[in-house]
Amino acid sequence: MNKLIFAIWCCMLVAGMVWISDYSTRPAKSDGVLDLWPEETTLRCGGDSCLLLFVHPRCPCTRATLRQLEKLSADTADAIRRPRIVTLCYCPDTAEEGWAKTDIWESASALGEVILDPGGEEAGRFGISTSGHIILFDHGVRIFDGGITAGRGHEGEPPALTALIGCIRGRENKQCAFPVYGCGLFERGIEQ
Fold first, then answer.
1. Is the distance from CB of 89 to CB of 57 less than 8 angstroms?
2. Side-chain half-sphere of 77: how many Cα atoms within 13 Å?
């Protein structure tokens, strides 16, 4: 009997580890991000280089994205076409005032401008549905699209971060697209 219980326990342990590994490394589905800056957006980037980061303020995975952006900012401090960083912070239409003012909001504020996105209207205009999704536009043309982490909440040195740094430094001259790992931007029940 003890051997049977031990075998069942081992099977459950392995199944749990497989589920966790799959969950942390399964990219989000992409809704098809726009190639050009959308005319209907209220955001203004001045026709220059602009990096947009879309976040859910309570997604724990997004903290890794913000730490990766800190590395990017340090690595591109001397870049000629350094982008303006704008974070769009999702907030449900029905949320009480201050709902989005989390540690994620504060970390994003240290990197650039943070704009509240009630109901995810701007995210919808850009075709974004996952927290941690980054789009880099250069003069209104998308040159980078995706996430810069190796998995949900994982930092490291993924190829996406290297490619984004290359785009900012002018070494990448083609559009780059990478998977995004994070919580759904419009998910309910995400708690810190």
1. yes
2. 5
